[in-house]
Amino acid sequence: MKVKLASSYGFCFGVKRAIKIAEGYENSATMGPLIHNQNETDRLQNDYNVGLYRELTDVKPKDTIIIRTHGIPRADLKELKSKDAKVINATCPFVTTPQQIVKKMSEKEYSILIFGDEEHPEVKGVKSYGKDQEDVHVILEPEELNNIRFKYDKIATVAQTTKKKEIYLQIVNELILKNKEVRVFNTICDATFENQDAARDISKEVDVMVVIGGKNSSNTKQLHSICLENCENSYLIENASELNKFWFDNKKLCGITAGASTPDWIIQQVVDSIEKY
Amino acid sequence: MKVKLASSYGFCFGVKRAIKIAEGYENSATMGPLIHNQNETDRLQNDYNVGLYRELTDVKPKDTIIIRTHGIPRADLKELKSKDAKVINATCPFVTTPQQIVKKMSEKEYSILIFGDEEHPEVKGVKSYGKDQEDVHVILEPEELNNIRFKYDKIATVAQTTKKKEIYLQIVNELILKNKEVRVFNTICDATFENQDAARDISKEVDVMVVIGGKNSSNTKQLHSICLENCENSYLIENASELNKFWFDNKKLCGITAGASTPDWIIQQVVDSIEKY
């Protein structure tokens, strides 16, 4: 069976980078799970003794602590350093940038608007870099602007989300009409959309499609549904053991994509198995 | 006949201010016509001996030169000063602001985009304040963005036009998606829209409407057509001599508005005449 990989799939740039960093620090611990994939966190634990801390109180002096892609709030970073831990920063550059923008702009007396979900750890981290926390506002919908009182008529805005750009632009447009100056920093992370676009493309040219990822993962399920639109023989599996050889009967080309939490080695096992059919 | 004036009509803030300034400098000359209304420029000439220069070459040493609301290009201002003329700046603050923004932002290495008409004198003036004239771009439609190569991926943008805000936002949205940072300065002049909104409101509550302004003036014609939508008895006149008393037969309330080049004293003559019916 001939196999073709989507032009973009699986881990994003930031996660790949963080795993590489973690592999370089044996006997360390990540602050929160590096990735939502148990196989991969087990691998890091078994091969590199990279453990997992869930609370700052878990940290002991001289620990080597890896900050995951999401980043952490400024106060937490300070506390880590005060505990005399060695801090390894694997924050995704796409998160570090908005952190620094929020810091700089709030120091220059701009009110801050973050497009994102207040509950997400990366948003909490970015927000924490604002000088005046009362004047850093986080919203997901344009309607929420009505409830905000900005301190200044100069607004700086960043996007920290994988949500639709169109909604961000709606928010920005309202800001422009009501304020003297709006500084829009394009910090939207395209990774999710890149995997989706690539899945759409490849599913049009193959006669069977395999999507690898967690069955409860919303981004994997979305990839599967995009593939089904173009290729009725699209299957969602978590790993190679779930493959069914009948799927490939009388088929010529199998396309592969994978959710954002699926490690390359799981994908490779699937590819190897399909190629044997 | 009872008369009611629209809540906003006639000269905008900037023109009123410029005329006031011109009246304070007898025996001066304006660089280009202060306003497109011959009656008003005649009045300034007759009452204050404020003349009119059309070319820089007209200027003689020790002349007092009034810069009109539109502003002038930086090089022209320099030339005026080199001729030892006394320069009185009546540039509208809504034009001075984008001039200064373009200056400051281009010095900070932002590419500049001006939403406006390249042929308009105020746009020429604003553009001239850019440090690198090759990197100051003037457009009226989003499609024109395709032909632009910005020097930087940081763009500062100002609006110098009375065109629709919606089109400006479309342009800004495209910029946001393609650049690292977009600084949007809300410099849109609302004067035209204020007169239009006020004409719409008042024409709904009167039974006869008089619009005063040049019959060739596009902004006056637009006011007239807005009034006709709500009040079929809407008449466009240039001055009180064109009033027809039959228009007011059996009418109770007459609304008044005026184009952006119609001086108050012409409006007052019309009001006085109608009140006598």
Q: Please provide the ordered H/E string of secondary-structure elements of chain A.
A: EHEHEEHEHEHEEHEHEHEEH
> How big is the Rg of chain A?
21 Å
Number of helices of chain A: 9
What is the multimeric organization of the chains shown?
homodimer
Task: Classify the beta-strand content of chain A into a percent band.
Answer: 15-25%
Mean pLDDT of chain A: 94
Helical amount of chain A: 25-40%
Largest sheet of chain A: 4 strands, parallel
Overall geometry of chain A comes to flat
Query: Could you give the count of β-strands of chain A?
Result: 12
Helical/strand content category of chain A: alpha/beta
Spatial arrangement of strands, main beta sheet of chain A: 1-12-10-11
Question: In a few lines, what is going on in this structure?
Answer:
Helices cover 38% and strands 19% of the residues of chain A. Chain A is an alpha/beta fold and 277 residues long. In chain A, helix 3 (74-82) links the parallel strand 4 (64-67) and strand 5 (86-89).
Account of the 3D structure:
The structure is a homodimer of 277-residue chains. Chain A is an alpha/beta fold and 277 residues long. Chain A is 38% helix and 19% strand. Chain A is built from 9 helices and 12 strands. Chain A has helices at residues 13-23, 38-48, 74-82, 93-107, 121-127, 165-178, 191-203, 218-230, 264-276; strands at 2-5, 29-31, 51-53, 64-67, 86-89, 111-115, 136-139, 154-159, 181-185, 208-212, 234-237, 253-258. Chain A is flat. The N and C termini of chain A lie close together (5 Å). At the A-B interface, helix 6 and strand 9 of A face helix 6 and strand 9 of B.
